[in-house]
Every structure is written in C-alpha cells, then in structure tokens.
Design a protein that fits this description.
There is one protein chain. The chain is of the alpha/beta class. It folds into two domains: about 60 residues, no CATH class; about 170 residues, P-loop containing nucleotide triphosphate hydrolases (Rossmann fold). Helix content is about 60%, strand content about 10%. The protein has twelve helices and five strands. It has a five-stranded parallel beta sheet. The chain is elongated. The N and C termini lie far apart (about 85 Å).
Length: about 260
C-alpha cells in the first residue's frame, strides 16, 4: 500500500510529501495530532521545499561571483547611508518601477559586496537577476554583434528584471565597446532595472563613453529614475591592511623586549 501511495504522490508531483509522509504520520500519532494538523504539516513541508528549490534556481541563474550577505556589510563606516534606505532597496519595490541603483565609491569600499548582497536578497524573492562584470558584458556584446545577433542578445538580457553591471569604470573602452554598452543602457531605459557600480564620478564618465554627447545621454537615462549610493569612505581592504600592519608592528616590539625580571 505504501508503494502505491508513494507512486500516487509522485504522479501528482508531490515529491517531498512522498518522501516524508510516513515519518510525519508517526510523529503526528505520537503527539495526538488531528488529520487536519497532519495534512497542514505535510503541505507546509512541501511548500517550503519548493520555495528552497526556486530560490536555489534563481541564485544559480544570477551568476553571483561570491557569497556576500547584507548583514555582513558594515554600514556604520558610511555615515550618509541609512539602514532604512538599504532595507527599502532590499525589498525590491524599485524593480517594479524599473528604477536603477548606482553605487559609487573608491576601490575597496564595498561596492561589489553591496551589489552582490542586494542581488542575493532579490533572488530570495524569486526576482530574475543577472550579475556581470562590465568587462564580461562588453565582450559578450562584441561577440553578439560579430555574429549579427546583437538584438537577440539584448532581448535575452531583457528577461532579467535586474541587470547588475559591476566595475563599469575599471577598463578603458574602445569607442565600439562603449557604443554597444550605451545601446544596452538605452534599451533598458524605463523597461528594466540596472544596478551599476563605478569608481568614477559622473564628471569623469567621458573616460567610459568617449564623447560628450553619448556620456550625457547615458547619464541622463541612468539618473532619471535612480537611487544613488555614495560609499566615499576608506577602503575596507586598506583599513584591514592598516590594522594588520599595526598588529604586526606591536608584535615585533613585544618580541624585541627582554624580560629582566
């Protein structure tokens, strides 16, 4: 009989219930649970497992390069960044409005950490996100153009509610590359959300887009519906290096002392 029931549950695609109904029944009998309580427990377990599988799928598709958590981001180091603002962005309402998030700051201030952690939170809400370095994105755009497949490639990116472009200012772009990047930004304008991290303030974005007209047009589209986060504080890595250096210096002094007692 149990094999028949297991087969019936699997045919209904209740795979988790098919695996646990027997052990849950024993527990229900042990604690004198009603049939309704027993069914509720089974349904809850099935729903939770499906949710976990869905989240795992969205996280995999997002292609996050590292596992960074929002709780590990030290917001106290950035005086102008409020916890309520981060909480608001974490909820993802801006995605429904097709707004953007622009994260600026010096190298090592936590731009990528924040972008990854927020993207992870949106994936947990079953939002379709894709995380790419600017260098990787530009290369993919060039390849698509070379194969006369640029429009289809941009349409494939359109299925992602949030496209995260990390380190947009790290590499020098040839004009062909910056033009392709602009095409993508223009296509997503007011249609889908973008999250962009940059070391360069807007006044220096002509280093990215080569000419003043394209630079102005790109900035206008990005800023029109955007939340701008400025992480202008000391580099996390520099701060850690200073702490390590000070600790090493103190240790050396201690080791050099001779105990005369």
């Amino acid at each position: 009989m149990s094999n028949i029931l297991t087969g019936m549950l699997e045919s209904l695609k209740l795979e988790t219930i098919s695996q646990v109904y027997s052990s849950i029944a024993i527990d229900a009998e042990k604690h004198n649970k009603t049939y309704t309580d027993y069914l509720t427990d089974l349904a809850s377990i099935e729903i939770e497992e499906r949710r976990n599988k869905t989240i795992a799928k969205f996280l995999k598709k997002a292609q996050l390069p590292r596992d960074k958590l929002l709780k590990d981001f030290d917001i106290t180091r950035i005086p102008n960044l409020s916890p309520s603002l981060l909480q608001n962005l974490q909820q993802g309402d801006f995605i429904d409005r097709c707004d953007n998030i622009l994260i600026f700051g010096n190298p090592g201030t936590g731009k990528s950490h924040l972008a990854i952690a927020l993207t992870r939170e949106w994936c947990m809400q079953a939002r379709k996100c894709l995380y790419l370095s600017a260098a990787s994105l530009v290369q993919q755009l060039l390849i698509a153009k070379g194969k006369l497949n640029l429009n289809n490639f941009i349409k494939r990116l359109d299925k992602y509610e949030v496209l995260v472009i990390d380190d947009i200012s790290y590499i020098p772009y040839a004009k062909e590359e910056s033009d392709l990047l602009f095409v993508l930004l223009a296509e997503r304008y007011e249609q889908r959300s973008l999250v962009i991290t940059s070391n360069l303030v807007f006044s220096k974005w002509n280093q990215i887009f080569q000419d003043e007209m394209t630079t102005t047009a790109a900035i206008d589209r990005l800023v029109h519906h955007a939340t701008i986060l400025e992480l202008n504080t000391e580099s996390y890595r520099m701060n850690a290096a200073k702490i390590a250096k000070n600790y090493s210096h103190k240790s050396t002094k201690t080791e050099g002392k001779i105990d005369v007692k």
